[in-house]
């Protein structure tokens, strides 16, 4: 599932490509015909992203809600577009660009009440300027579940998925099994700052890069070698850009990375950098100075 940085990136890209021009909106696959009819010929001025949700603000107070889920994706092409192939739920044709949406779990108009209900189920989003950090800290204080499960709960913090979970806990030296309420307010704020910084880097870099170089900028994934296949490429990128996620050995100390299941997904941790019961800081800190988080929106 795309994590929050992908959603905020899409919001920026779609505003750049499609905003403030009347759009031809259709549902080639036929499952969003009513929605498409209501939006056809209208323009949107802005898009609000909350965690993994996108809200397109169309004229006449119409709001299109999109949630990609596991399989949803957008594809972009120049206008005029090719004939739609496959299951295209929604097509938006602008003057220069056409965007197709397929496989999403939500693609409907929502009214203000439904939107309020949706947002009430979401925790603060570290990429939003209006994020209420205190809500995150308070939510952790109340939870006995492991911190690694708590930050995957979109009611606690919106936009964190499996990669950011592994990486944000790692750089702060936090044991994923530590009960959330034992983290403490101060460490919770540091973790929040790390997540905000990692997400913001993700929006800028268009990928998750949690390792920073001496210049404090996200490192590059390096160049492909000749004849590099997709698997080798994924290994190279991971080796360069993340600390523990899907790695065999920890980037910081080279200890074998331990895998287990938590909140239905594999959690990756280094038992040396994240000792049992640890709330951090990491014995090999690299990105733990997350308090100086750069926020984007
Ligand atoms: Zn380590």
Structural class of the secondary elements?
A: alpha+beta
Write down the secondary-structure element order.
HEHEEEEEEEHHHHHHEE
Low-confidence stretches: 286-297
Please indicate the count of domains.
Answer: 2
Task: Please render the helix and strand layout as text.
Elements: H1 4-18, E1 24-26, H2 33-39, E2 44-50, E3 53-58, E4 62-67, E5 73-78, E6 90-93, E7 97-102, E8 106-109, H3 112-120, H4 133-142, H5 147-150, H6 162-171, H7 185-205, H8 230-241, E9 258-262, E10 265-269
Bound molecules: zinc ion.
What this model shows, in words?
Keywords: DNA damage, DNA repair, DNA-binding, Glycosidase, Hydrolase, Lyase, Metal-binding, Multifunctional enzyme, Zinc, Zinc-finger. It is an enzyme of class 4 (lyase). The chain is globular. The chain has helices at residues 4-18, 33-39, 112-120, 133-142, 147-150, 162-171, 185-205, 230-241; strands at residues 24-26, 44-50, 53-58, 62-67, 73-78, 90-93, 97-102, 106-109, 258-262, 265-269. It folds into 2 domains: 4-120, Alpha-Beta Barrel (N-terminal domain of MutM-like DNA repair proteins), CATH 3.20.190.10; 133-292, Helicase, Ruva Protein, domain 3. The model is unreliable at 286-297 (pLDDT under 50). The chain has 8 helices and 10 strands. Strand 3 (53-58) and strand 4 (62-67) form a beta hairpin. The protein is of the alpha+beta class and 297 residues long.
């Amino acid at each position: 599932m795309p994590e929050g940085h992908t959603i905020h990136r899409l919001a920026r890209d779609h505003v750049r490509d499609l905003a403030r021009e009347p759009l031809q909106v259709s549902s080639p696959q036929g499952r969003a015909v009513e929605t498409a009819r209501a939006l056809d010929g209208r323009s949107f001025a802005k898009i609000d992203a909350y965690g993994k949700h996108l809200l397109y603000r169309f004229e006449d107070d119409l709001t299109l809600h999109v949630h990609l889920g596991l399989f949803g994706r957008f594809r972009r092409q120049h206008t005029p577009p090719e004939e739609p192939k496959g299951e295209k739920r929604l097509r938006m044709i602008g003057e220069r660009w056409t965007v197709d949406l397929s496989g999403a779990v939500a693609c409907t108009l929502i009214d203000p009440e439904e939107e309020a209900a949706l947002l009430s189920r979401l925790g603060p989003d570290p990429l939003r300027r209006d994020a209420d950090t205190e809500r995150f800290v308070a939510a952790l204080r109340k939870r006995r579940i492991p911190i690694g499960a708590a930050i995957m709960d979109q009611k606690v913090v919106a936009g964190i998925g499996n990669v950011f979970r592994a990486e944000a806990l790692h750089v702060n030296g936090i044991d994923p099994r530590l009960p959330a309420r034992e983290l403490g307010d101060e460490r919770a704020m540091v973790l929040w700052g790390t997540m905000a910084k990692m997400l913001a880097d993700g929006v800028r870099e268009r990928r998750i890069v949690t390792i920073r170089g001496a210049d404090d900028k996200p490192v590059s994934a390096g160049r492909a070698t000749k004849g590099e296949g997709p698997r080798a490429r994924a290994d190279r990128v991971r080796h360069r850009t993340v600390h523990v996620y899907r790695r065999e050995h920890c980037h910081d100390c080279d200890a074998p990375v331990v895998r287990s299941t938590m909140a239905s997904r594999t959690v990756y941790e280094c038992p040396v950098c994240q000792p049992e019961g640890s709330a951090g800081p990491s014995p090999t800190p690299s990105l733990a100075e997350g308090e100086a988080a750069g926020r984007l929106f």
